[in-house]
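Example record

The entry below shows one chain as it appears in the dataset: sequence first, then structure tokens.
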Amino acid sequence: MLRAGRVFTFVITVIALLLLILLSAGGLLGPLEGVVSVPLSFAQGVVSSITHTISDGLDDLSNFRRLEKRNQDLEEAYAIAQSQLAEYREKALLYDDLAALLEYDRFEPEDREFVTCDVIGLDNTGFVRAIQIDCGRRDGVEIGDPVVIDLGMVGRVTKVSATGAEVLLLTDPNSQINARVQTTRADGVVVGQLSGDLLMSYISVDDEVREGDFVVSSGLGQTAPADLILGRVLSVSLAQSELYQEARVRSLVEFDRLEVVQVITNFEPVDPSVFVEQDEQ
């Protein structure tokens, strides 16, 4: 019975389809097709619009991910380039420092011996102005050795170990170097100041000292070899006692930015006490 019902339904469906085909071929379903096509066309448009929107969204997302990946790649490349540039700049600065020291060697007396050292520490706090270097007794460095760069004298070695040393800077108040004005040969003593400048004292009132004159070590007192540049005169005045002149001197060295220095290792000060003992005998 159930099977007969299915056959009947199938036959009715086939007959209905054939009838619809015949009516459509004869043009009798035109008005009905027009009415039905309106909602179908609208639905098709909506579906098409949603499909395009989804497709465009997926394309935009894909493009965004590609751009994001490219941006990350560019940022990594930029970071690497910046790192390499910083490394090249550092090497260039080191090359300039070493080249300047080599040029300085060329104009120094041939009997002077140098050892080149890296600055590994700086102490400019409180009342002490000093640097630490990575050269010591193993490199021939001894207490009292002068330390220089191409712009002039930096200071003197005051402490030394096997592999390192401490250098008291010219600007330390405990630093005293016998000096003279390069042009007029006026003698005096250059003393470090807390301000970071230098003060040249005990200049005879009869000696001429001009602003801009270079001040160099005199070699007197064996505090340093002669003719090391100490700085330039900024101003000249009469001391409070009015017994001598004083000159404010500015070193050409930037003490806070020292990276490479040279130690004169064959400077041997003469001990003046030897002459005193000979006179007494």
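Notes for this example: The mean pLDDT is 79. The CA atoms of residues 202 and 241 lie 11 Å apart.
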